[in-house]
Write a structure and sequence with these properties.
The complex is a heterotetramer, with two copies of chain A (411 residues) and two copies of chain B (141 residues). With 411 residues, chain A is mainly α. Chain A has one domain: Na+/H+ antiporter like fold (Up-down Bundle). Chain A contains 20 helices and no strands. Chain B has a single domain, classed as Roll (CBS-domain). In chain B, 42% of the residues lie in helices and 17% in strands. Chain B contains seven helices and five strands. In chain B, helix 2 links the parallel strand 1 and strand 2. Classes of the chains: A mainly alpha (411), B alpha+beta (141). Chains in contact: A-B, A-C, A-D, B-C, B-D, C-D. At the B-D interface, helix 6 of B face helix 20 of D. Chains A, D: One of its GO terms (cellular component) is membrane. Chains A, D: Its main location: membrane. Chains A, D: It is found in: Membrane. Chains A, D: Pfam families: Na_H_Exchanger.
C-alpha cells in the first residue's frame, strides 16, 4: 500500500502544485501541501486505508541528505569571500534574529511537551525558523525584472542562509539527544565532529571518484550512493547525517575546483521530487485539531520569526556597511519558508522521544509555510518596490501569458 | 582513425582564452566565431587548463532571464567572476595517437562539440569537430 | 521587450527543412550553416510542425561511435527514418506580442539556441537567437 | 540499517563494476553481482548484521516498473514495422526456442518445489530464459567496429526481445497465481487485460501531462510518479504491474509521436541505478549451498537456453528470409543475460507461496548471468567474426586506451 500512496502523492501533488502556480500564481509548494492534507488520516487517508508511517522515515532521511548535499555545494570558499561583507553579516543577523526571538518567545510562553526539557521545543522551533526558501523570492525577482543592490543581496542571502540553518539545527538536535546533561557533552561533540570529519573525507573521495566517471548515469549512482551511505552511517554511528551530507557537498565542491556541474547537476534533478515528497508527507501529518488548538502558536511563530529576521538583518546589514535602502528591506524579502524546514520537522518524527514534539513542529511549520509562501511573496515585492528595484511597467503579466502560451504549443 | 591523421585531413583551430579573462570577454569570443561552441582556456605557457562551453556561459550571463535557480546558480549570479572560476578544469583531451572512436563518446556525454588534441605538454594541436565527423558520416549514406 | 520589436532590431532567418527530408539531408543543412544549431521543420503550407537540433541529429548519425545504447537508441540506429520521425513535434514558439523574458527560460530548459517567432498560422516570422541576447547582455557590463 | 546497506551496495557495486570493466573488460554487471554476494548472509552480511528483506520488495517492484516502462518505449509502431521481417521472426524464434527447450527440459527432469504444481518451476525458468541483455553485445559491436547485416539484426533483436519476455513472464505469473484451476481463468484474464487497459490509459495521460511540463525535473516527478502509482495500483487490484508499466511506456511513446526524448530521457538516467540495485540484491540472495547443490541445474539451464535460442533464431530468421550468414550466427550473439531477468526473479521473492521457487530461480539466474555475460561476449564476437563483420585490425585495444586516457585528465 505504501507504493500506491507514494505514487498518488507524487502525481496528485505535482498536478495540484503546477495547476495552482499556473492559474493562481501561488508557489507549487502550496499545492503539494494541500494534496498531502487531502490524503491525511483525518480526510481521505483513513477512508482509503493508506498508511505512510513505515516508509516515511528512511525516505525523509535520504531526501534530506540530498538537499543538504546541494546546500553544502552552493558556493566555493572563493565565492563566499567575494559575496560581500554586508551580505554575510545580513544573513548572520537575519538567522540570529529569527532564532533568538522565536526561542525567547516560546521559552517565555513555556511551550513544551512532557518528554523533553523546557528549552527543547523552543530550541527546535527557533532552529526551524532560521530557514528561508529561495524559490518564491527568485520568482518575484524574475517576474518584476528586479535589478539593483537589494536584489543582489536577497539572491545571495537566500542561497546562503540554509547552510547556517542546517548547522544550527544539527547542533540543536545533538544537544537535545544529550538532554542537557553535562556528562553527555562528549556525545554532542562527537555528533558534530564526526559528521564534519566523515562528510569531509567523503567529499574528497566522491570528487576523486566522479572524475573517473564520465557518464551522467554512473555519476548519479555514485553521488546518490554516497549520500545514502552517509545517512546510513550516521544512523549506525550516531552522528548528524544532515550536517555530514552538507559537509560532503561543501568539500566535494571545494576539492572539485571551479566547475561543479559534474558533481551537482545529476543530484539537482532529483530536488523537485524530494520537495514533492517532503511537502505532501508534511501535509499527511497535518492534523486539523492540532492546528486549530495551536493556532495562536502558529501565528506567534510567524510574527516572532518575521520580526526577528527583519530586525536581525537590519542590524547585520548596517554593521556590514550596507546603505539603509538595503538594510530596511532585506528582512522583508526573506519570509518564505519551505522545503528544508519541512524536511527537518519530518525528520524529528523518526525518534520516539521526539514524536510528540514532531507533531507540533510539523503542524506549525506546515501552516507557517502556507502562510509565508503567500504573504512572503507580497512582502518581498513590497520591499523591492520600496527600494525602487522593480520594473513595474512590465511586470505582473506572468500567469496570463503562461496560460496562453501553453495553449499554442504542440500539434 | 588516429587523431593526428584526422587533424591532417580536417585541420581546425581551437579558440582559446586566458583564465583571467572576464565572462563578457569570453562571450565576445563566441560572438566573433559564431560556429564555435567550445573555447579552451590556456595558461601563460600555452597549456590547456580548462574548457568553457557556450551554453554554460549563456546561462551565466543571461541568468536574469531565468525564473528558477538552484542555490549554486544563485551564488554564481551574485558573485560573477573570471573565466577561471566557471571553466571546467576537467577537460577531456585526446593524444595524437589515440583513435577517435575510443574517445568520442565521452565527449558526447559531456555535451561538447569539439575534442581538443594536445601533445605531451598539453599544448593544443587542434580540435576534432563533431561537424566534420558528421560530414564524413553523411558521405557514407 | 516584445518579440516583434526584437526581430525588427535583430533580424535573423530560420533554416527550415521538409518533414520528408532524410537525416543526411538535414545534416547537410547544418553543415551549410555552421553557426546554426536548430532547424525547423515546416509542412507544405509553410507551418512550423517540428524542430530538429544539431546534437540530436549528430547522435543519430554518429550512433556507431557510441559504446552504450538505450533500447530506444538501438531501434533508432537500426531503423533510420526521415526527419519527420526524429523531429520534436512539440515546438515551443513565440508570438510577436509576447515578451522575451517570459518565454526564454523554457528554451534554455529545452537546450535550444533559438526561439522561433510565428504568426497566428504558425508561419515563421524569424528567430530570436541566444547569441544576440548574449550580445546585448555583454554590452551592459 | 537498511539505508546503510543500500548505500554500501550502490557505492561498492559501482566501484567494483567499473573497475572490473576497466581492468578486465568484463561487463559491469559481474562486479555488481560479486559485491552483492560479498554482503550476502553467508559471507559478510551476517557478520555486519545487515538485513535487506524489509526494503527489497517495494524497491524491486518500482525498479522493475521503471525498466519495463523503458522497454515499452523502445520503439514506435512505425519503427517496428520498418524493423524488417527477418528481425521480427528471428526474435520470435529465438524467444520461442529458448522458452520451449528450457520448459521441456525442466519438466522432463521433474524439477519442482512443494508449494507449486509440477509445471510451475519449469514455466518460470522458461520465461526467464527468454531475456537477453543488450549492453555486452553493444559493447562488443562497438569495440570491434562491427558493421553489416548481422550487426544490424543483433542490434534490432536485443532491443526487442525483452518486450516479448515481459509479456511471457506476466502471463506465466498470472497462470501460476491461478494455480492452473480452470475456474480461476477469469482472474488470469483480468490480470492481463487490466494491466493493458490501465497501462494504456496511463500512457495517454502521461503523454498529455508531459507536454505541459517544460522542466526536466518536473517531468521526472511525473514519469516516476506514474510508474510508482501503476505499480501500487497493480498490487492493490491484482493485475500485472510489469505488463502495465511496459504498456505505459509503449502507449506514451505511441501517442507522443516521433520525438520521445521528453518522455524517456529523464527515466533513462535512472536505469543504471536500478541495475546496480538489481544485481547487488540478487547477489545478496545468492546462496552458495543452493548453487552447489543445483550446479547441474544451472549448467542445464544455460545449455538449454543457448541451444533453444540458436535453433529458434535460425528457424525464425530463415522463415523471415534472412541469408544463412545471419541465421547461423544470430543466436550465438544473444547469450548475455541480465538485469531484467534478475529483476523478475527478485520479484518472485515478494510472494510467500513463491519464496522457495524464488530462491532457486534467483540462484540459477544469477549464476547464469555471470556465465553468459563472460561467455556471451566471446560467442557474440565469434558469430560476428564468422559473418565477416568485425574490423579485427583496429579492435580490442579498449582497456589499455581507457586506462591511459583517464590518467591524462584533470589538472
Amino acid at each position: 500500500m505504501e507504493i500506491l500512496l507514494i505514487g498518488i502523492l507524487l502525481l496528485a501533488g505535482l498536478a495540484f502544485g503546477t495547476l495552482g502556480s499556473h492559474y493562481f500564481g501561488v508557489p507549487r509548494v502550496v499545492g503539494y501541501i494541500l494534496i498531502g492534507m487531502l490524503f491525511s488520516p483525518d480526510l481521505l487517508g483513513d477512508y482509503l486505508g493508506l498508511d505512510a508511517a513505515r516508509w516515511t522515515q528512511p525516505l525523509v532521511a535520504i531526501a534530506l541528505g540530498i538537499v543538504a548535499y546541494l546546500i553544502g555545494g552552493a558556493a566555493t570558499v572563493g565565492q563566499l569571500r567575494r559575496l560581500g561583507v554586508s551580505i554575510i553579516t545580513a544573513t548572520v543577523g537575519k538567522v540570529t534574529g529569527a532564532f533568538l526571538l522565536v526561542f525567547a518567545g516560546f521559552v517565555w510562553l513555556g511551550v513544551g511537551v512532557p518528554d523533553l526539557p523546557g528549552w527543547g521545543v523552543p530550541l527546535v522551533l527557533a532552529a526551524l525558523a532560521t530557514i528561508t526558501a529561495p524559490a518564491a523570492i527568485v520568482a518575484i525577482i524574475h517576474q518584476y525584472r528586479a535589478r539593483g543592490p537589494l536584489t543582489t543581496a536577497l539572491l545571495g542571502m537566500v542561497a546562503m542562509d540554509d547552510a547556517l540553518g542546517v548547522v544550527i539545527f544539527s547542533v540543536v538536535l545533538a544537544l537535545l539527544a544529550a538532554d542537557g546533561v553535562v556528562s553527555a557533552l562528549p556525545l554532542v561533540v562527537w555528533e558534530i565532529v564526526a559528521a564534519l570529519v566523515i562528510g569531509g573525507i567523503g567529499g574528497w573521495l566522491i570528487e576523486r571518484i566522479s572524475r573517473l566517471l564520465h557518464e551522467h548515469e554512473l555519476r548519479l549512482v555514485a553521488l546518490v550512493g554516497a549520500i545514502i551511505l552517509l545517512v546510513g552511517l550516521a544512523e549506525a554511528w550516531h552522528f548528524s547525517g544532515l550536517l555530514a551530507a552538507m559537509t560532503l557537498g561543501f568539500t566535494a565542491r571545494w576539492f572539485g575546483g571551479s566547475h561543479a556541474e559534474r558533481l551537482f547537476e545529476p543530484v539537482e534533478q532529483l530536488e523537485e521530487m524530494v520537495f514533492v515528497l517532503f511537502f505532501t508527507f508534511a501535509g499527511l501529518y497535518f492534523d486539523l485539531s492540532v492546528a486549530v488548538e495551536h493556532g495562536w502558536l502558529i501565528l506567534l511563530f510567524f510574527m516572532l520569526r518575521a520580526a526577528g529576521q527583519v530586525v536581525g538583518s537590519w542590524i547585520g546589514a548596517r554593521l556590514g556597511g550596507a546603505p539603509p535602502a538595503i538594510a530596511n528591506n532585506v528582512g522583508l524579502g526573506m519570509l518564505p519558508q519551505g522545503g528544508v524546514a519541512v524536511g527537518m520537522a519530518l525528520m524529528l518524527e523518526g525518534q520516539p522521544r521526539f514524536a510528540e514534539m514532531a507533531t507540533l513542529a510539523i503542524n506549525i511549520i506546515t501552516a507557517s509555510t502556507l502562510l509565508t509562501e503567500s504573504i512572503g511573496a507580497l512582502a518581498a515585492r513590497f520591499g523591492l518596490q520600496r527600494a525602487g528595484e522593480l520594473d513595474m511597467a512590465n511586470g505582473g503579466q506572468h500567469a496570463g501569458q503562461q496560460g496562453r502560451r501553453n495553449g499554442d504549443e504542440g500539434k | 582513425m588516429k587523431a593526428s591523421d584526422w587533424l591532417a585531413a580536417h585541420p581546425a583551430e581551437a579558440v582559446t582564452v586566458s583564465p583571467e579573462a572576464s565572462l563578457p570577454e569570453a562571450a565576445a569570443l563566441f560572438l566573433e566565431h559564431p560556429e564555435v561552441r567550445d573555447i579552451y582556456v590556456v595558461d601563460a605557457e600555452g597549456r590547456v587548463c580548462g574548457h568553457l562551453g557556450f551554453r554554460r556561459l549563456a546561462g551565466l550571463l543571461l541568468a536574469h532571464l531565468r525564473p528558477t535557480h538552484s542555490r549554486r546558480q544563485l551564488v554564481e549570479r551574485v558573485v560573477g567572476g573570471s573565466v577561471r572560476e566557471h571553466m571546467d578544469d576537467h577537460v577531456l583531451v585526446m593524444r595524437p595517437d589515440e583513435r577517435i572512436s575510443e574517445v568520442f563518446h565521452h565527449h558526447m556525454e559531456r555535451r561538447v562539440e569539439a575534442i581538443p588534441v594536445v601533445d605531451g605538454e598539453r599544448r593544443l594541436l587542434g580540435v576534432i569537430r563533431i561537424a566534420d565527423l558528421l560530414r564524413k558520416a553523411i558521405n557514407r549514406y
